Amino acid sequence: MKRTQSKRALILLIYILILFGFNYLAFNSWLPAKDFKGLWFYSGIASILLGNLLVTPFYTKPVDAISYSVVGLITIFLVNDWLNWVLIDKAIYITALSFQGIVILVSFIGIITKDSDKTIGIQISKTCMIFSEFLGNQRIVFSVVILYAIIVFHRTEVLEMFFITLAWVITVVIEPDKHLFKIIERISNVWKVKQIRGNLGFISAYQLPKMILINQPEDSFTEFGTTIIYKDSHDSIKTGITLNYVGRNEQLLLRAIEFESTTDAIEVAKESAKIFSSNSVAQFEYYDKNPDEKDKVSILKNIDDLIGIVDEQTSVEKLCFEVIDNNDIEEGRLVEVEINGQTVLYQILDGLTKEDIVIHKNKYGYARATATKIGIWNAKERKFSPAKWLPEINTPVFLKKTIDYTPSFDTIGHFPKTNYTVGIENVNELVTHNTAILGILGIGKSMLSIELVERMIAEKIRVICIDLTDQYADKLSDYYDAETESEIIEEIANLGKTGKTTVRKNVEEGGSINELRNAIKNDLKDFFSDINMSYLKIYNPAKFEAWKQDSKPYQGDASMMSLTPTEITQIISESALEICQEQGMTENARCCLVYEEAHSLIPEWNSVASEGDKAATNGTARAILQGRKYGLGCMLITQRTANVTKTILNQCNSIFAMRTFDDTGKNFISNYIGSEYSDKLSSLKERQAVFYGKASTCENPVLIRLNDRDDFTKVFREKYLPPELPTNEVVENEEIKNKKDTKKETDDFNDLPF
Description:
The chain is an alpha+beta fold.
């Protein structure tokens, strides 16, 4: 029985009253004498009780042994009558003092050799500590004081010697409290109402580890989650909890799984189980009557979340479990299972039905789910850490219940119907190692990319959006001076139109492609300027009309071709790379190129609209491949994975895979996230994505529910306010500066409007 400190104090009080009683019997007085006749009471019994029950009831450290022995030595030394003593008294006196001195010496040696780095020193220290713990125990030390007092001061008085010795034997040697309380507890257990309720049946088979099959009478039924006790074939007492019924042909068998009970529950179970034989099973109501004890047992505390048990074919990375409760289970949900004492989370990805043989060739069908390992949740860092090894078969599996998701500024999303979040490990690596957002139309790709753009801007990373949809300027209006930028874009666009009739002998100088390239580069130089507080630039290639000469001139005329969005994308990408190269190498992200509708901007060769697009795509790819060391990276967004150049897509180290149906796209994505996740892409819901890569806070692929736009902006902009946009005056000054710089570069641009 567990003794609390209050119970120990009560026992101490009872012992003291007993001592007063023995003192009265020995001396005909309730109060002990104040001279040597009271030594046994004050220095002996009282100290033993204080030590045993209140101060050091469990073990004695060397420092405690020294403290007790010093008190004992001083007590014996001060209470003596050496001059009048006979030989036996002096011998007892010297023996008692010597004992206390030896204890002090041994304990002291144990302390000073404790930190020795030599083997002999360690051995001496441990040996001394063993002797110190045994001889320096308060019961031994103060028993010497009592025996000294009995022999020297009371041996001539038979009555005194008898009652003092009896008091010492009862309170120190016998310690009736330990035995008395155990007897009381056992009697109490016998009379407790309905700790067990009859026999539920008998054990028909064992499914090791920890699983039993119970044979019950035909008219019996036991509910899921009923706690039971049973005796196994070795007559050991076990506690368990019922799961479900299995078998079909001849009989139904009730399955139960063993769990480790609390100490108090086991004691009650042992007393209760004495009334039935081995292999018998009975309902155990102890935990229902003791809710506090129930909370100490994981499987009982989380019984409402128990959905299955670990099944065969579970591996280090994959969990297979038999589903016991289908309620609220679906793909993407998290389950937890214990591995070596740690709670590890898995994500459900698939399920199937299976037929199994139970006993006597009875079969039953069940659903089996498969889940991939996510890791151990680190609440402090709010991310998952790796988990080693695999769970034991038949280990309980618990479903993580629905919790209202509370968005945070540093999370990109959360696991469905939980508050477990996934974040961006490093925004710089999101850029420098490139990112891809893949999925069909209308499932939230652009909203995700816009959120990522905001995160980049918050890290002072400049973002160039090449956007055919015109939605970035609207959704990111707080970061974008639309009025000023529209004037710049219009001037660049007007410049390109003039090249349709510009014929040059050198074909490469004809048209307006060079003018467009220089204008975009000058605009980007202004964008990259340290004094420019704007971190967002948006180009729509469809709004630019530019021309390139397609043939050598003949009689002052030549054929012209308009630049495609792919070719304009190349100009923007190469210009950004040139500016980043001029600023030197860096480990951090400097600029991110966002390719919205990437299948139109950087198409695969078999999807190009013209031969010129092949060369343009190659040019853009080269810029991305070279850009990393200069802080340049990209984020591409597409609904047709098969139509995007794989040269760039293969360089994307972080992937957000959303709903997609085409096999080509799923096969490509499976190389990144595995077939378990790629097979689920066609069934993903809106705003769901499989996220994997260097930028993720999870080491493995995860299926997450992305942030809602409104929820994200609310929490994110509370921490990261949009930067102040440059004033018109600053823009005008920059335009004047650009005019001067442009004039210095070439006389062909004297008429440029900026």
